[in-house]
Amino acid sequence: MRGRFITFEGIDGAGKSTQHAWLAAHLRSLGHEVVATREPGGTPLGEQLRGLLLAEPMHIETEALLMFAARREHIAQVIEPALTRGAWVACDRFADASFAYQSGGRGLAWEKIAALRDWTLGHLQPDITFIFDIPVATAQERLAKINNQRDRFEQEQTAFFERVRAAYHRIATENPQRVTLIDATQSTEEINKLLEKSIARY
Known about the structure:
Elements: E1 5-10, H1 16-29, E2 34-38, H2 44-55, H3 60-84, E3 88-92, H4 95-105, H5 110-121, E4 128-133, H6 136-146, H7 158-174, E5 179-183, H8 188-199
Parallel strand pairs: 1-3, 1-4, 2-3, 4-5
Helix pairs in contact: 1-8, 2-3, 3-5, 4-5, 4-7
EC number: 2.7.4.9
Protein name: Thymidylate kinase
InterPro entries: P-loop_NTPase (IPR027417), Thymidylate_kin-like_dom (IPR039430), Thymidylate_kinase (IPR018094)
């Protein structure tokens, strides 16, 4: 039986990485094999590309292409093999992040990201995507408390993150069967319960 593929999305500071770790642990407690991974990254090559993407200035199209290069390797080396053997894959960011950040945030044409997605992913898409939604000001307050060394994305201005957030809202609207939009201003415990309820049908 093929495994399940769950992705976690949201602007920086929304709390998705915390919930990603919690759900992976919860699924393991239920007896599932879980591969918890992240993007960009997830493979040795992907982690090297992550270092470049988060630190080095580059052309917007170069950024998008490197994101999808890391993603293609991730799919081939980690995600597809895990799903094939029946494991659950919990991924901190996936292709939706490219629409949100490279298209919404940076302004690259949505259609270009869609073309890269179709070429790179083929028929693969998450079974469920959780988008953690939070006002930009609240997210930035959270980041200021926990992170003094911000990468080049986290250093972007408020307007950038407003565009990213709007893109995530568009993704949620256009993909209601796959995407669950979560109010990330709720308590950790409340969000835990929502995630638990959402995966119960699987």
